[in-house]
Amino acid sequence: MATSLPSHSLWYSLLLQLLLLLPVLSVAKTPVKFTLGSSLTAIDNSSYLASPSGEFAFGFQQIGSGRFLLAIWFNKIPEKTIIWSANGNNLVQRGSKIRLTSDGEFMLNDPTGKQIWKADPVSPGVSHAAMLDTGNFVLASQDSTLLWESFNHPTDTILPTQILNQGGKLVARISDMSYSSGRFLFTLQDDGNLVLSHRDFRKGSTSTAYWSSQTEGGGFQVIFNQSGHVYLSGRNSSILNGVFSTAASTKDFHQRAILEHDGVFRQYVYPKKAAVSSAGSWPMTWTSLASIATEKICTIINAETGSGACGFNSYCILGDDQRPYCKCPPGYTFLDPHDEKKGCKQNFVPQSCNQESRETNEFDFENMTNVDWPLADYEHFKEVTVDWCRNACLDDCFCAVAIFGDGDCWKKKNPLSNGRYDPSNGRLALIKVGKGNFTWPPNWEGFKKKDRSTLITTGSVLLGSSVFLNLLLLLAAIMFIFYLNDRKSKAVEPRPAMEGANLRSFTYSELEVATDGFKHEIGRGAFATVYKGTLAHDNGDFVAVKRLDRKVVEGEQEFETEASVIGRTNHKNLVQLLGFCNEGQHQLLVYEFMSNGSLSAFLFGKSRPSWYHRIQIILGTARGLLYLHEECSTQIIHCDIKPQNILLDDGFTARISNFGLAKLLKSDQTRTMTGIRGTRGYLAPEWFKTVPITVKVDVYSFGILLLELIFCRKNFELELEDEDQVVLADWAYDCYKEGKLDQILENDKEALNDIETVRKFLMIAFWCIQEDPSKRPTMKTVTQMLEGALEVSVPPDPSSFISSTCFISTPGSNGA
């Protein structure tokens, strides 16, 4: 429905009209030209052409490990937010080139010369290309006539001064980490109606719009002006729909409006001063001042031939941040943990439809309220009880879910579609699940009668051959039955490993196969060894399987702790636990695989990581710790923050791992007594005193880690000849106090060019490693200081305690 402009006094309305109709003006600056014959090569993130003021850049951005995106991004924001891309569906390898040929053709070729993308069509007469300060990349003639411009070919974002004409559209990404075209569209249709719709992008079909301006026959252009207003105008320049109204000038704020991968169209602003003075990250510091289709996006999307707002067998729920999230019902797991919108699958064997092998005793129900899959019905019953509804679903092999409310019962079958959580629903969802994590393969009692009959018949023929053979086969049959029953007892009744965590239970044999007999070791610690594996039934994705050493007494405690702790957490800066095995003497944890390994290998390798990547890792680690300390249901002290326990995913996002030494605090606790845990060099002073520890021990460890990330060296390097440089924290403080940071940064040009950020990060680190825990900031304060939301005051001398404890050998130094 149309969004009407607010009704205010006449003078206010006139003022608003004037603001909306401000002309599109641009500061006249000479653009840096990309002349005929010029090219850019995808080597690293430094391959780009900047606009005159440096606010925008055009070039290559590395996505994940090794692939490149030809893009335009905000160049003065640390996160380098991308606002346009050419090859999101087909990333290119290192060595690919974008070139402006002598004939005026602008094309992207891979290292073999194959054309990947081309600016087409382009009028003849192109003499140069340029990146403008508006964020528009253009191809122009000798007299500066624009022959092609990125503004006319938007991807998912529009910028101030950009106009969307009839037929124009924005296409959301498939996910936050992927630039491939997704399922949501923002389109100004040829009939003048502005709509938000979703599609089955694999088939190219578009469903009914889930938001509309209702301006058929009138809408002409979507305009984003320099006063921060996005609106729909008619042919006579009249304002038909005030889409957004932020009143934020482009002089003081970076701005963008984007159709995000969750299907919501949002406008964001970011103060330019903050971009210059801090390392703030866009997702945390941008403010969503306005949005379309947020409140009801989970319930307004209905697709008769598709899955709805989320994938099949999942449901959509609006989070506290007013963003829609996709969740799996009990008994289901995501098809792809990295893309929740792909839907969910059952983590148990579905009920058999063989009349003589219904196995109803192997299934039970999990209850959920206010969750429904409206278009998955195939039977409806009235004036029944909830028990009747439950039993009717249990006796029906096709029934996956039954919905009960006010005496009505609806049976639903897989795949479940249009799933949503709606507080106004009031109905009870009965989810059919396998008992005891009942998983494939089924055992003897699960065999169909036909299969058992075949086995018995075959055995009977063989038994007739001789008495001796009969005896041998009988003995073998008895042993086989005992073997299957033993497997059943282990599979159906696994040892309980944790409470409150919805994780998949694996058998030891499954993980033995997945790891090829535990051949590929990728990490080892005091209590465990980590192996690389592949779960064939999970699209062949790699996993990391952590096997606890049962010979170590502490291993039992570590397994229980790590499984229960990380099983309850959910944050993008924590490694996700996928499942566990707690079978007899075998205790294993199954994690998502981190393709870029540990921060230790990344940071202390032969080549220095970019300053940009280090900033992102610093911010990601801080946010992960903030979540553990203040935002998850149980406050958690990690106790072993160090580079080996920070892993990096495909996009080099920091993911905190290894919770084997973690300590949980009860809701009424702020501190606890415990033995020394952690790794030498990262231990806070209070570990060596008879005092309770608090979350401030993690703050101390983060401070040491922050110093290592700033300078790309370990906190202690005993092989150095200069004794003053052995302890990084001491040397860094001396250089900071004496104003000689260039000495410690050496040839780190990127960091030297951002010396104010370096100085600010150093001050934060010194606050974190104060000997007195009460002087250390909380991780919330640390994160706010890192992002520029809080000023950083001058820290006192951190004390010499660091040097005196660095060589104390402590238990629990593990890297697995």
Automatic annotation (TrEMBL):
Binding residue positions for ATP: K546
Domain Protein kinase: where? 516-790
* Limits of the Bulb-type lectin domain: 34-152
Transmembrane portions of the chain = 461-484
Location, primary (coarse class): membrane
InterPro entries xrefs: Bulb-type_lectin_dom, Bulb-type_lectin_dom_sf, G-type_lectin_kinases/EP1-like, Kinase-like_dom_sf, Prot_kinase_dom, Protein_kinase_ATP_BS, Ser/Thr_kinase_AS, SRK-like_kinase
| Enzyme Commission number(s) from the entry | 2.7.11.1
User: Which family, according to UniProt?
Assistant: Belongs to the protein kinase superfamily. Ser/Thr protein kinase family.
Q: Which protein are we looking at? A: Receptor-like serine/threonine-protein kinase
Species whose genome carries this gene = Vitis vinifera (Grape)
Tell me the lineage of the source organism.
Eukaryota, Viridiplantae, Streptophyta, Embryophyta, Tracheophyta
